[in-house]
Amino acid sequence: MPNDITQLDATQTPTADASIEAVDAIEATDVKDVKDVKDAPDSVGIVTPVSYHFDESLLLRSGKTLPTYDLMVETYGELNASRSNAILICHALSGDHHAAGYHSASDSKPGWWDSAIGPGKAIDTTKFFVVALNNLGGCAGSTGPTSINPDTGKPYGPDFPVVTVRDWVKSQLQLMDRLAIKKWAAVVGGSLGGMQVQRWAISYPDRVANAVCIASAPKLSAQNIAFNEVARYSITSDPNFHAGRYLEHNTYPKQGLMLARMVGHITYLSDSAMRAKFGNAGSQLENTTRGNLGRDLRSGTLSFGLNVDFEVESYLHYQGERFSSNFDANSYLLMTKALDYFDPSVDYGNDLSKAFANGDCKFLLVSFSTDWRFPPERSRELVEVLLKAGREVTYLEVEADQGHDAFLMPIPRYINAMRGFLNSAYKELVNDAS
Predict the structure, then answer these.
(1) Which 3 state secondary structure label does DSSP give 315?
(2) Among 107, 246, 364, 409, which one has the highest count of C-beta atoms within 10 angstroms of its own C-beta?
(3) What pLDDT is recorded for position 183?
(4) With b meaning 16 or more CB within 10 Å and e meaning fewer, what string describes 372-394?
(5) How far is the C-alpha of 45 from the C-alpha of 283, rounded, in Å?
(6) Measured between alpha carbons, how far is residue 244 from residues 100, 260, 261, 297, 379 in Å?
(7) Which residues pair with 118 in a beta bridge?
(8) Is 91 a residue of the active site?
(9) Per annotation, catalytic residue among 91, 97, 98, 404
(10) How much is the CA Rg of the chain, to the nearest whole Å?
(11) Following DSSP, what letter does each residue of 188-235 receive, concatenated?
(12) Catalytic residue among 94, 191, 216, 234
């Protein structure tokens, strides 16, 4: 296997299709005719999620056990006769199983990674059978804090056990076996999803042919843990948190969840992205600054009070409000803890290369220049670990202004690189079959 880092350029990728125009994935594309988009040849169209129930117990890393559990799943494309063309999509902190397409004709926005999944897209559903699920502890249909605890008849709430990335991958393996898939053609994920990709390659190296790890890291930095703790404290200190039993009080910690999301959202964007997003119009402050710097005023004038004066403030309030209405606070606490706890090296004498010593999985790693939550040096750190382990690695560092959220956006060089890597994986799959 080659023991060097490949700087993969879009012009070098096999079958690099025409570039997709970049859009803001945080605010899904403004659709004038939703029906036309859903019927578009590159859309998976209307999809129906399926809940898989597992009666077998799941022993968690904490030592606790889930006696039974459900996983909410969506699939796109068709599984081939040899069941060898399946790709697993691992979601990030606030993601879920709805990665592509629409749930109904009335939906105005598609799944969270619709720009990458579909016929002819980077994760091509004419070639691959794509599986996306909501992880345990989530709040989109899989068993989590809002589920009913069979022992009490009430929502689990804070009694739901802490789950780790290892636990998620263990449950994903159970789903894989239920689907009678022997080996993933690829496991793909960004951010926290990229940590799941790493865990697959460590725990079940013979069940993964290719791993695509995007905007991720082998463990969190102290700064990242600090941001997560601020978010958690914002939630747990909300008077409506009720020690995590807010559902029993018919309420929820809205203000705390809003603040947690606002803080998190700032870390997902770069300074240049915020300048561009909130600095398109002139303002009365422009003459007193060197450039607008993203300081557009909401109403054109200052209030000289504690009101929301700037567009960026209004945007953060909107993001917090929307998130707090759609995500469970206890799930948010669990997801951030899973991030904090991820460090596979602890089982290998702090030598992460030993963790990747087994299997023949090939890796594509991607980082983004303005991602300060998981900066390129963290991906390069993982590249060095994989090379030390003798793994075959392709690495791409993308110049992009969008910060950490760049992994959700159809940036041409990034999308074409992923398409090229997966197309190569598909060719190997076809050759092996023949």
Answers:
(1) helix
(2) 364
(3) 97
(4) ebbbbebbeebbebbbebebbbb
(5) 42
(6) 32, 15, 18, 38, 35
(7) 124
(8) no
(9) 404
(10) 22
(11) EEETHHHHHHHHHHHH-GGGBSEEEEES--SS--HHHHHHHHHHHHHH
(12) 191
Average predicted confidence (pLDDT) for the chain? 88
Exposure class string for 204-243: b at 16+ Cβ within 10 A, else e: bbebbbbbbbbbbbbbbeeebeebbeebbebbbebeebbe
Give 10's pLDDT tier (boundaries 50, 70, 90). Answer: very low
Q: Which of these is catalytic: 371, 379, 401, 405?
A: 371
Residue 8 has pLDDT above 60, yes or no: no
pLDDT on residue 265: 87
Q: Pick the range with the lowest mean pLDDT from 13-17, 99-103, 195-199.
A: 13-17
Give pLDDT tens digits for 335-368. 999 999 999 999 999 999 999 999 899 999 999 9
| Helix, coil or strand: residue 395 | strand
CB 252 within 8 A of CB 236: no
The Cα–Cα gap between 348 and 149 comes to 36
Output the CA torsion sign for 183, 184, 185, 191: negative
Is 84 among the residues known to form the active site? no
Give residue-wise pLDDT tens across range 156-192.
Answer: 999 999 999 999 999 999 999 999 999 999 999 999 9
Which tokens go with 233? 């404290």
Secondary-structure breakdown of the chain: helix, strand, coil percentages, each rounded to the nearest 5: 40, 15, 45
Q: What are the Cα distances from residue 281, in Å, to 191, 278, 299, 348?
A: 33, 8, 11, 54
CB 166, CB 93: distance < 8 Å: no
55 included as an active-site residue: no
Distance CA 118, CA 130 (A): 9
Residue linked to tokens 């995500």:
327
Closest CA to 374 of 351, 347, 394, 398: 398
How many other CB atoms are there within 10 angstroms of residue 21's CB atom?
9
pLDDT computed for residue 54 by the predictor: 98
Q: What pLDDT, in 10s, does the model give residues 259-308?
A: 999 999 888 888 888 787 777 644 443 433 445 555 766 567 776 777 77
